[in-house]
């Protein structure tokens, strides 16, 4: 196998952990000597050993003169675990391939510097694009202290999320819906508006055949209308947080709190999206999936408070001038004032199209 193939193996190990390492990144490592695989591993959970530790421990004394492939710059700081760079130096590894630098200000090039100063041959950039993409949430979070926001919607070819009656079951295929459950597994939190709670009474949990992790459920509910009997309140399989505004009924707050729901009130008449994202950041939520409805999407888009849009487009035309599109709000007077994005990828998921776009940096 070639260097890039070993790095891809490390990237696959990292990818398998997306959704389980937060607020830490997903990292994979592969250790090779004389063309043999002698160690490998991934960082499995925050607070537990880093990827390199698993790989080096598996190899033991044999690590000496080995070549390490790691998807993120080895750390140089004492966090919950000691520095990986020190362990690599101690183990006698002679060469290290690093896919991408760690943007964590505590590391940020110091890991590489340490390795080089110890006489280790270091190459940075092998498989960099893939390694960056798989940790886009961590990269965004570590720089901004707010979650990476993905707006997700399932639409018909004419951009509707429901027929004129409000009926929305099911626009996209079972294959797309399964893909959405993968997204839920990968995200720390999922957010909807109060209208979605009232109309759909969603559960917002992860349902994949192989099981999965539930995201924290978040509701933006200005007037605290979330029904006590809604699934988000009654179902205990995931935590629910409701953001609300001032002057809400204190008895309702008590009732919801009694069911284990966390209520966060802003001293304003509406919920300021960017302030809300800061609160989520303080809670170490590094990725947020926004699942509608159209007014919520409009708020995030108007505020420029999103990093990615994922659209599942079904080959169906619903039509109807009062059928809801996936973005509501007022909208601008002129196309000139529209939000500009660029397409990142497109793929077929069952009969549907999955489109990813991100805001254009001008
Ligand atoms: C690595 N390998 O597998 C991971 C790294 O609190 P700690 O000690 O777990 O440190 C967390 C930080 O370490 C995290 O913010 C990121 O900068 C880096 N993660 N580094 O060398 C790994 N998961
Ligand atoms: Zn480390």
TrEMBL record:
Task: Output the PROSITE patterns linked to this UniProt entry.
Answer: CYT_DCMP_DEAMINASES_1 (PS00903), CYT_DCMP_DEAMINASES_2 (PS51747)
Q: Which InterPro entries match?
A: APOBEC/CMP_deaminase_Zn-bd, CMP_dCMP_dom, Cytidine_deaminase-like, DHFR-like_dom_sf, Eubact_RibD, RibD_C, RibDG_C, Riboflavin_Biosynth_HTPR
The Gene Ontology terms for molecular function here are: 5-amino-6-(5-phosphoribosylamino)uracil reductase activity; diaminohydroxyphosphoribosylaminopyrimidine deaminase activity
Q: How the cofactor binds, per note? A: Binds 1 zinc ion.
CC cofactor:
Zn(2+)
Cited PANTHER family? 2,5-DIAMINO-6-RIBOSYLAMINO-4(3H)-PYRIMIDINONE 5'-PHOSPHATE REDUCTASE (PTHR38011:SF7), DIHYDROFOLATE REDUCTASE FAMILY PROTEIN (AFU_ORTHOLOGUE AFUA_8G06820) (PTHR38011)
- What SUPFAM superfamilies does this protein map onto? Cytidine deaminase-like, Dihydrofolate reductase-like
Domain (CMP/dCMP-type deaminase) ranges: 1-123
Q: Which gene holds the coding sequence for this protein?
A: ribD
| E.C. number | 3.5.4.26, 1.1.1.193
**High-level lineage:** Bacteria, Bacillati, Bacillota, Bacilli, Bacillales
- Reactions performed catalytically: 2,5-diamino-6-hydroxy-4-(5-phosphoribosylamino)-pyrimidine + H2O + H(+) = 5-amino-6-(5-phospho-D-ribosylamino)uracil + NH4(+); 5-amino-6-(5-phospho-D-ribitylamino)uracil + NADP(+) = 5-amino-6-(5-phospho-D-ribosylamino)uracil + NADPH + H(+)
Instruction: Kindly give the Gene3D superfamilies that the UniProt entry links to this protein.
Output: Cytidine Deaminase, domain 2, Dihydrofolate Reductase, subunit A
What organism, scientifically named, is this protein from? Cytobacillus spartinae
Q: Which family does it belong to?
A: In the C-terminal section; belongs to the HTP reductase family. In the N-terminal section; belongs to the cytidine and deoxycytidylate deaminase family.
Function of the protein:
Converts 2,5-diamino-6-(ribosylamino)-4(3h)-pyrimidinone 5'-phosphate into 5-amino-6-(ribosylamino)-2,4(1h,3h)-pyrimidinedione 5'-phosphate.
Keywords, ordered alphabetically: Hydrolase, Metal-binding, Multifunctional enzyme, NADP, Oxidoreductase, Riboflavin biosynthesis, Zinc
- State the pathway, as annotated in the record: Cofactor biosynthesis; riboflavin biosynthesis; 5-amino-6-(D-ribitylamino)uracil from GTP: step 3/4; Cofactor biosynthesis; riboflavin biosynthesis; 5-amino-6-(D-ribitylamino)uracil from GTP: step 2/4
* The name this protein goes by in its record: Riboflavin biosynthesis protein RibD
């Amino acid at each position: 196998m070639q260097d890039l193939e070993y790095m891809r193996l490390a990237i696959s190990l990292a990818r398998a952990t997306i959704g389980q390492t937060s607020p830490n990144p997903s990292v994979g490592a592969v250790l090779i000597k004389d063309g043999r695989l002698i160690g490998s591993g991934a960082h499995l959970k925050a607070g537990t050993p880093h990827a390199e530790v698993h790989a080096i421990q598996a190899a033991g004394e044999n690590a000496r003169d080995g070549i390490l492939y790691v998807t993120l710059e080895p750390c140089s700081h004492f966090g919950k675990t000691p520095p990986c760079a020190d362990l690599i130096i101690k183990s006698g590894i002679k060469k290290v391939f690093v896919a991408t630098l760690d943007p964590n200000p505590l590391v940020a090039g110091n890991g590489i510097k340490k390795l080089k100063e110890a006489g280790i041959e270091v190459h940075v950039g092998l498989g960099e694009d893939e390694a960056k993409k798989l940790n886009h949430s961590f990269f965004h979070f570590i720089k901004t202290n707010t979650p990476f926001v993905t707006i997700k919607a399932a639409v018909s070819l004419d951009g509707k999320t429901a027929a004129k009656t409000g009926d929305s079951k099911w626009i996209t295929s079972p294959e797309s819906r399964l893909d959405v459950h993968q997204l839920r597994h990968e995200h720390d939190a999922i957010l909807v508006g109060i209208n979605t709670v009232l109309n759909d009474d969603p559960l917002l949990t992860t349902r994949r055949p192989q099981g999965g992790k539930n995201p924290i459920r978040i509701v933006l509910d200005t007037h605290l209308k979330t029904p006590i009997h809604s699934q988000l309140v009654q179902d205990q399989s995931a935590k629910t947080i409701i953001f609300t505004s001032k002057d809400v009924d204190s008895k309702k707050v008590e009732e919801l709190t009694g069911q284990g729901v966390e209520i966060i009130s802003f001293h304003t008449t509406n919920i300021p999206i960017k302030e809300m994202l800061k609160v989520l950041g303080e809670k170490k939520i590094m990725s947020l999936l926004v699942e509608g409805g159209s007014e919520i999407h409009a708020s995030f888009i108007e505020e420029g408070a999103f990093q990615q849009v994922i659209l599942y487009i079904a080959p169906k035309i619903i039509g109807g001038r009062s059928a809801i599109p996936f973005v509501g709000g007022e909208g601008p007077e002129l196309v000139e004032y529209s939000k500009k994005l660029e397409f990142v990828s497109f793929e077929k998921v069952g009969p549907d199209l999955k489109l990813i776009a991100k805001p254009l940096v001008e």
